[in-house]
Amino acid sequence: MNNRNALLDLGQKIKKFRLKKGLTQYELADKCDMNRNYIGMLERGERNPTYSTLLAVVKGLDIELYELLKERIE
Questions:
Q1: pLDDT over threshold 80, residue 74
Q2: C-alpha angle with apex 59: 44 to 35, nearest 5 degrees?
Q3: What gap in Å lies between CA 34 and CA 67, rounded to an integer?
Q4: According to the model, what pLDDT value does residue 1 have?
Q5: Left if phi > 0, otherwise alpha if psi is -120 to 50, otherwise beta: which for 23?
Q6: Which of 46, 53, 57, 70 has a Cα-to-Cα distance from 35 of 20 to 30 A?
Q7: CB within 8 A of 65, min separation 6: which ones?
Q8: CA 74 – CA 63 distance, rounded (Å)
Q9: Higher-scoring residue by pLDDT: 71, 30
Q10: pLDDT value of residue 3
Q11: In this prediction, what percent of the chain has a pLDDT beyond 70?
Q12: For the range 48-53, what are the long-range contacts, defined as Cβ-Cβ under 8 Å and sequence gap of 24 or more?
């Protein structure tokens, strides 16, 4: 898997969890103390998040990091 595909996969996982939690991008961004546009870029695989960004996202989603990383996209 190349980097672009890995970023797309990660973005889809973030979106899947966000929708499961019933959150909009604005709401997740607020919980993560991030800009809504940045959340959108993460979900589209346009940004390569740092470890600290991933920690903020999973905290905003109220999940553990391993849950995000082990999730499979179908």
A1: no
A2: 45
A3: 21
A4: 61
A5: beta
A6: 70
A7: 54, 55, 58
A8: 20
A9: 30
A10: 78
A11: 93
A12: 48/3, 48/7, 49/10
Count of H-run helices and E-run strands, the chain:
5, 0
Instruction: Note whether 47 and 2 are within 8 A (CB).
Output: no
pLDDT, tens digit, 9 for 90 and up, residues 24-54: 999 999 999 999 999 999 999 999 999 999 9
What CATH superfamily is the domain 3-70? Answer: lambda repressor-like DNA-binding domains (1.10.260.40)
Inform me whether the pLDDT recorded for 72 exceeds 90.
no
Cα separation, 2 vs 57, whole angstroms? 23
Q: Which sequence spans correspond to the domains of the chain?
A: 3-70
Q: φ and ψ at 56, to 5 degrees?
A: -65, -40
Size of the chain in residues: 74
What six digits make up the tokens of 30?
């607020």
